[in-house]
Amino acid sequence: MIIKTPSRIHMALIDLNGSYGRRDGGIGLTIEKPNFILESETCKKGVSIDFDKNIEDIEIKNQCLLKIKDSAEKIISHFNLDSGFHFNVKEAFLTHSGLGSGTQISLATAKLICEYNGISVSGVELGKILGRGGTSGVGIYSFDYGGLIIDGGHDINEKPEFLPSSASKASPPNLIGRYEFPNEWEILVAIPQSNTIMGENEVNIFQEYCPVPKKDVEKLSHLIFMNLVPFLLEKNIKSMGNVINEIQKIGFKKVEVSLQQEKIKNTMNKMKEFGAYGVGMSSFGPAVYGILDKENQDVFKLTKEFIGEEGIVFKTNAQNHGFELKK
């Protein structure tokens, strides 16, 4: 059995103020590549993991080993299963790149085990078992449904502190919006070589910079629900792009961008200068994204020349469906 997952761009956390009784809330876009592809078969006992020869990066291997083993053990224990599993990682993508690799590895592993055992369970339920989605549900709903995702965050009584997903024990949030993204639009992704903010540093940033100003949350909510989504539905790429540019200057996204190395900020500025319709940073980076159509294809070539050997640049499309499973 083989599962293939998409990746995701995390566009923003909506409410890191909390004075209206909720916090978090995420908006993001499911993208076709990079993918995580995992093959599995049952065995008598334990969890074993192999890698295809094309996967050589030590950090990628280490993350896969950690996430697959942890997820498999949690699912086997939760459902009190007898058999073991052997996994073969056929394709994987950069760790800590801002594209959500950890969630996709964890959910893919759990889904394969459940399918083998005839257990019908959603990504949200798997997220609860695995401890994923404690801040944003974008990765979980990208796994299940694809498209442009908006989740409703958490009641402050369930989640009393401002914390990233890696440190939050809250349940995955509810899905409040899922929208098809035009197939004719392309997503340009640039990942400059850069230090990544994660772990304890990420927790400290949430503690230091939150709550963000209430007026920023109000403005961001208005931009998302009264501008970005309507412009998306109208297929107005330029106006939607302007909203993406504006989001980078508001609330917690402004904090995330401000703390980046200059090469990330320079990449964002250059992509805008080259003509991308909207340029943003995914999560805490280092992945930067821009929206393209047939009118501004030169942006890809110019961005690739600008990054050179100091990073990765590729084009992809949005994915309007979730994981793919072959039995």
Automatic annotation (TrEMBL):
This is Uncharacterized protein. It comes from bioreactor metagenome. Keywords: Transferase. One of its GO terms (molecular function) is ATP binding. It holds the Pfam family GHMP_kinases_N. Residues 230-297 form the GHMP kinase C-terminal domain. Residues 69-143 form the GHMP kinase N-terminal domain.
